[in-house]
Amino acid sequence: MARSTSTQRSLPPSDEIGPGFESHVPGVDYGVLDNLVGYAIRRAQILVYDDFLQALAPWDITPPRFSALVLIARNPGMKQTDLAQLLGIARSGVVMLTDGLEALGYVRRVASKTDRRAYMLELTSAGSKALSAIEAAVREHDARMSSRLSEAEKSKLIQLLARIGPAGEQQ
Amino acid sequence: MARSTSTQRSLPPSDEIGPGFESHVPGVDYGVLDNLVGYAIRRAQILVYDDFLQALAPWDITPPRFSALVLIARNPGMKQTDLAQLLGIARSGVVMLTDGLEALGYVRRVASKTDRRAYMLELTSAGSKALSAIEAAVREHDARMSSRLSEAEKSKLIQLLARIGPAGEQQ
DNA sequence: TATTGTTATACTCTATAACTATA
DNA sequence: TATAGTTATAGAGTATAACAATA
């Protein structure tokens, strides 16, 4: 392709890194990548993650933090170990995640009455209030990312993605 | 929900972390997460990434390494800067990526004849040979991850994912 | 004995910034 | 003056292992 001099694309506005990620640069041969579900997911994920971070920056919320907030809100009283399992991360990771959400004033550790080793997680009233705004921002972000899809296509996409996974699992 | 004692699910076989990530634990309320395209993508990505790593471990190949290999194979003569742009990472990242692939004997840096600052990337014959096996393994992995989808659904999914992205881009 | 939360540690990934040699 | 590759450094994110308190 010899893009060296000819196809030289407009370079990044900031130093080093450009608009993040162009999912499909014209004139480039992506070979098998274009036929892989995994690569399509990866591509989309990079774009979504980047936009999420920007959109939720005012609340200092990352995807894992958002997932944790929603899960705690909808399932109050979970132990940290429970959350670790739901998020698929180690318990030590939940400690730091919880520390962060506690520092933001969104989450509270409540001593369990049945197990003195454990803490039950719940939202503070500030966290509950913040989550409303945060959820709205996330919905807006999500709508923007799928704005080229109809509602039907969006549902279809979610449904198809839910069936992705190694051979004998879920469903 | 009070899963503390009652709903206590079978715990990880290894210490700390379980089978990775259960995308949807029954009895748990995922709230808005179930309606977000972004979360569906994130879920799928975690499962795919994990399986990819296991499947490609024999070749010591990660998703970024695989993408790089394919792009170099199909577009020989790219500069490292070109690859950085395609992958959406910093130039310094490509240096290490290339170092790794060079150490594996798969990629070669060839001095450009037109620009003495630049190197053109290309596969070695060993890299070319290895890529055949690697591609086969990746295809197998990808087929396993989407084994619950028909060919038509798989195509549809790839097509829908390609349309994900912030408002005014691609397509 | 096993589990909960915690800490300490390390490892990976990647960005930033500065440097050099070219252009 | 700008760009290619490189290096050094630092910051996330997350895993592992060990520990005290409790079960």
Overall SS class of chain A: mainly alpha
Determine the oligomeric state from the structure. homodimer
> Which chain pair shows the most residues in contact?
A-B, 89 and 88 residues
Approximately how much helix is present in the residues of chain A? Answer: 40-55%
CATH topology of the domain at 35-141 in chain A: Arc Repressor Mutant, subunit A
Low-confidence stretches of chain A: 1-15
Distance between the termini of chain A: 45 Å
- What is the annotated CATH architecture of the domain at 35-141 in chain A? Orthogonal Bundle
Rg estimate of chain A, integer Å: 20 Å
Mean pLDDT of chain A: 89
Order of helices and strands of chain A: HHEHHEEHH
Number of helices of chain A: 6
Shape of chain A: elongated
**Annotation, overall tally of beta strands of chain A:** 3
Give the strand order, joined by hyphens, for the main sheet of chain A.
1-3-2
Largest pleated sheet of chain A? 3 strands, antiparallel
The percentage of residues in β strands of chain A lies in: 5-15%
The CATH superfamily title of the domain at 35-141 in chain A = Winged helix-like DNA-binding domain superfamily/Winged helix DNA-binding domain
| CATH class designation of the domain at 35-141 in chain A | Mainly Alpha
